[in-house]
Amino acid sequence: MLHTTWFILIFVLLTGYAILDGFDLGVGILHLFSKKEREKKIMVKSIGPIWDGNEVWLITVVGAMFAAFPPIYANILSGLYIPMILFLGGIIFRAISLEFQHYVESPFLKSFFTKAFGVSSLVITVLFGLILGNLLRGLPIDATMNYVGGANFFHPYNFLVALLVTILFVMHGANWLVLKTEGELMNRMVNWSSRMWMLFILLYGVAVVVTLYSAPHIMQGLSERPIFWPLQLLMIFPFFFMPNFLYQGKALKAFVMSGLLIFCLFFSVAVGLYPVLLPSSFDTAFSLSAFNASSSESTLMNMLIIVLIGMPLVLTYTGFIYWSFRGKVKLEDGEYH
Amino acid sequence: MDESLVLLSRFQFALTICFHYIFPVISIGLAWMLVCFELKAYRSGDKDYEDLAKLFAKILGITFAGGVATGITMEFQFGTNWANYSKFVGDVFGAPLAAEAVLAFFLESTFIGFYLFGRARLPRKFHLFSGFMVAFGATLSAFWIVVANSWQQTPAGHVIANGRAELVDFWAAVFNPSTLPRFFHTVGGTIIMGAFLVAAVASYYLLKDRYVEKAKKALKVAIVFGLTFSVLEAMPFGHLHAVQVAKTQPVKLAAMEGHFEGSKNAAFNVFGFPDEKEGKLKFGIAVPGVLSLLVGNSLDTYVPGLNDYDRSLWPPVLLTFASFHSMVALGSLFIAIFSIAAFLWWRKKLFNYRLLYQVFLVALPLPMLANQLGWTAAEVGRQPWIVYNILKTSDATSAHLSGGQIWFSIIFFSIVYAFLGWVYLYLLNRTVKKGMEA
User: Fold this and answer.
1) Which residue of A139, B48, B77, B241 has the fewest C-beta atoms within 10 A of its own C-beta?
2) Which chain A residues are closer than 8 Å to B116 by Cβ?
3) Which of 291-310 (A) contact B at CB < 8 A?
4) Based on the structure, what is the number of domains in chain B?
5) Is A30 contained in some domain?
């Protein structure tokens, strides 16, 4: 029970990260395609007070992995060493370019950081997708539960997942901007979102078919647990209604729809994988699961208490900050920068 | 395990942690200084303090971003380079890291959003509260990180079972013997840094004849914090920490003190050059008895020396000794500087000497250096153990990494951090030069 709870918690945190940082990464990518200074400022400002809190979900999911499933944490990070280092590079550049672009005055540095914000958002998104794709296929883990080298990071499936994640985040980010902006920029974001929506629907079918071959264990797990099939049915809502909401000007509902889509996708994967958190590409018998790769029950229990105390607080003040900074972004108010 | 690969991973860890630690030292200390400015502005309605708060809030914003950016690297690093360590101790060591994220870092990150962006649109009281929560959250973060590191120094609350360390008593692990002494000593160091930063900025304006009234107020606040905490940092924080090290990690203490021959009436070496090969301290200036007194309150206290232990258990003595002694020397200098300033203030001559401003300006990097040196003594002094008496550093790295991979990451981080460090300094400089509103 404790192990299953932690399996679910890891996916809750990971999904939370994908939904929350997902849209601000998407905003970063969209920022690359805007040519107007004013628009870029609005885009950055729309995520100004919240991106940091969003990113903490990543720190938390990694920290929770470390505490609850040490061998999984250790194998993923050391196994995908270079991608992880580059991912960190992206995180570092993004954090500093988001904060520093307001302070620098030299035109060169200003345009450098503005660009760096967009590029690093794209790099993080693509690497997140590549890493996710690689983890879904599995890592070369031997019978002693150790990574033995030779992960194929450039497998086409990784790129397919990366593409899917990028489309998803851009769509989610565009929906956020529809919610936060007005006028011409908003209209353009409506178009971006619906284009991404179409691309996603096209690619999703492909992804399902390819997953049958590249990560068959997930599909097998899903097919064995019909009780969770409604999760797939739930996806019909975003598929059918998101564009309508967008064109009817119901921005919040559209944004919730893209969030729901991310949730459905991640939890479908969770259902397919359970109880495995890190598949072995050698033999499914070597896969690391919530049962064979967990910390002691005492640690899981203590950590659960911490989470039960911490998460309601986190959700409360996260909700509060979104509420405080609700509404369309105005460039004039706010004297911080 | 190939020793040269272990050394590479250690070098990478040292590089990334030293660079990361620039930011928390400044942001924790500064956050508390800001609480003081905000509180004074709120209570007295004095707009000068509000202007000061706005200026230093900008510096906090820049610093905080640097801390977040470089901090994530640390959390990943245990997995990327120290996989065996992570597998062996994750059960115990992972918990405080996760607690830091859930209980402290979320708090800090959310409230800094309120604090930096909310001055115009939030109710005054709530804005004040969020400033406090930033400082509180940052300090709580420090607590959990110190917990994790202290467990490496003085492990407790665990058993070794199933080929790993397993947590049996959460609170015993959290409040292991070194947690509290190290927590106070660490946070004290950050507040001294905050005080020096405010003092240096104020001194800069005073030297340039800009914002004279505001700068005077800022300097006074800095002196109050600086004197209080530089004294507390030595006594009781530093002293209690040293007593704890003597009790729990006697080899480390011996290395810190350059104490080779165990003895009663042990001398305190003010200066010297520890010669590891010959096993004695050269060119030493020693005060007899003081070490025994400090450690055990009595001249009769036997203080074990390095020669009482097998050489394979010695940390690198010279580095441990030098970093510890430099830290102590700097700490004494800080007490002296703030005492002189406080004396001048008392004689109503605080603003009579340009030399004092120049001293504060030049001294700015020193508290950072002292913070870094303290941690160097703590971490190098723990060697050859990564978890004291439980796991050797040489058994802790990721087994399958190649030298090329580690070199790649070292070069990568060096370039990124050199750039980040340069921009950070540039921005600090710009922000201070640009100054306050009217």
Assistant:
1) B48
2) 49, 336
3) 295-296, 298-299, 302-303, 306-307, 309-310
4) 1
5) yes
Asked if residue A294 belongs to a domain, the reply is yes
pLDDT digits (tens, 9 = 90+) for A121-150: 999 999 999 999 999 998 898 888 888 888
**Which tokens go with B196?**
């020096």
**Of the candidates A25, A266, A168, A298, the residue with the CA atom closest to the CA atom of residue B95:** A298
| Residue B290, in any domain of the structure | no
Mean pLDDT of B289-318: 87
- pLDDT on residue A335: 43
Most A CBs within 10 A among B85, B130, B159, B167, hence the mutation to make, goes to: B167
Closest Cβ–Cβ partner in A59, A76, A149 for B72:
A59
Closest CA to B30 of B433, B434, B428, B435: B428
Provide the residue range defining the domain that includes A62. 2-324
Number of domains comprising chain A: 1
Alpha carbon A55 to its chain's center: 10
For residue B97, the one-letter residue type is: L
Q: How far apart are CA A147 and CA B398, in angstroms?
A: 10
Q: Is A104 left (phi over 0), alpha (psi -120 to 50) or beta?
A: beta
- Please calculate the CA angle A233-A235-A241 and round it to the nearest 5 degrees: 115
Q: How many CA atoms lie within 13 A of B291 on its CB side?
A: 28
Percent of chain A topping pLDDT 70: 98
A332 occurs within a structural domain: no
Euclidean distance between CA atoms B12 and B407, whole angstroms: 9
B95, two tokens? 């918990």
Q: Quick check: is B408 in a domain?
A: yes
CA distances from A105 to A16, A109, B247 (A): 36, 7, 54
**C-alpha to C-alpha distance for B138 and B125, rounded to whole angstroms:** 20
Is the preceding peptide bond at A279 cis, omega within 30 degrees of 0? Answer: no
Residue A331 has pLDDT above 80, yes or no: no
**Is residue B284 domain-resident?**
no
- Residue from B99, B134, B111 nearest B27 by CA: B134
Specify the pTM. 0.91
Q: Give B372's contacts (C-beta < 8 A, 6+ positions apart).
A: B18, B21
**β-pair partners for B166:** B159
Whole-number pLDDT of residue A226: 87
Among residues B295, B235, B234, the alpha carbon closest in space to that of B265 is found at B295
Residue B59 distance to chain A (closest CA, Å): 10
Residues facing A288 on adjacent strands = A278
What 3-state class would DSSP assign to B122? coil
Domain for residue A70, yes or no?
yes
